[in-house]
Structures
1.
Amino acid sequence: MDTNVLRQMGRAAIGEHVSQPAVAFVPGERGELASIASGTLFETLGRNVVVLTAKHCLDEVVDGPIRLVGFRSNNALAGRSPAVAAHPSASVDVGMFALWPEASGTLRGLALPLDQVAVDDAVDAATCDLVIAGYPKQMVVAEGSFRGLTGINYLTGLGQPPTDAVGRLRVLWTEMETPDGIAKMPHPGGTSGGAVWRFQKPPKGIWSPARSGSVIGVPVAWLESAQIEFAEPVSRWRDWFVSTAEEIDRLLKSQSTG
């Protein structure tokens, strides 16, 4: 088979894999989309579903209710999170929240296992591809009273230097391929809280997105002049995320039995 066809098949599989657990959430049970934030679904060991996102996106979740939109659906799920957690360090812009029962039951099949969080954030350009997944506000579909959200998965790489002064990943957000040629990327507002994925090219054996891909960062900020998204690297929040998922399991179990 032609290598270009294989490459296109791989990109399509990667796009599907990163899009399935990606969600967008907006404040309120109804009304205009005043703001949009992104997140990634994970299933905990206790079979609860949590959303990994940016800490600065949590205010709307705490105030509640929110509407949540997932993969290939514009049917929003409205509710209040039963548990919200923010990373304790003021310098780490990462947070998470648990889904309420209706949303958890509906979206569990799209959630990632916790082992899809990488154990490091090293990126070798020769053997790795990066993908940003999220929901840019600029891509909202508005027709009459209808409002639809469109997710994006963007194949990219790191800028030079690869990190900023505080250790955040500097991820390129420049141009994309379309059926009509090369186009400028939409403004990334709304992708905060999404995911930066790393896909490693295996030297041999069976390749699949689930085997080669893992989340290595959470987009949190944007530098327009350099067309760079800053992402919190997994090395700064992985241990907290896994241990907090366990705490949420215990909390929700106590609430259900109490």
2.
Amino acid sequence: MKFIKIYFFALLISNISFSQEKISFFHYALNSHIESPDTLEAIWGMELEFTTKRTYLDDSIFIESRLFTGDDDKAIKFKIKDGVWFYKKHFMWHLFYDYKKNVGGKISFLREKHLVKLENVVTLRNEILYKLTFTPVNNVPYSHFLEYYFSPNKGIVLIISNGGSILLRTDYFNIPLSHKEIQMI
């Protein structure tokens, strides 16, 4: 009887330890603020500083809030398989971006479907980044376009607004972009 109690206790402990989700927060700071992002309050808004929350469900699947949605309470579920990114909608996985083939899918956010399109490939600090834009499929006129720089390993690490604001993900960039690097993007 004592053995059975110990067995069930060990089983309970192992289930608790394996079921915990890993949560990461990624802060996007203005290029000029990157030297001390932990001392600044985030300025909420998609064009200005913000923080996303990424909840890992396993090694290759996670849910990320705020990125693309602009809302802390709305999230997109992503999966990475062999470096290719997918997102889940209506119980099915859809292509987000395949950097090997330079092909983007279609993703819905802000109540519109957008085509993920490769605009350019740049190398910053010995890392290849893919400049992605999101074009509304229904040709809805927008006055505000963002450029996203994508790392196949990390996701979106740099955002540029049409007003020229540069947001850097602080876990990826620990010093501001130089004038020369800004010219490259």
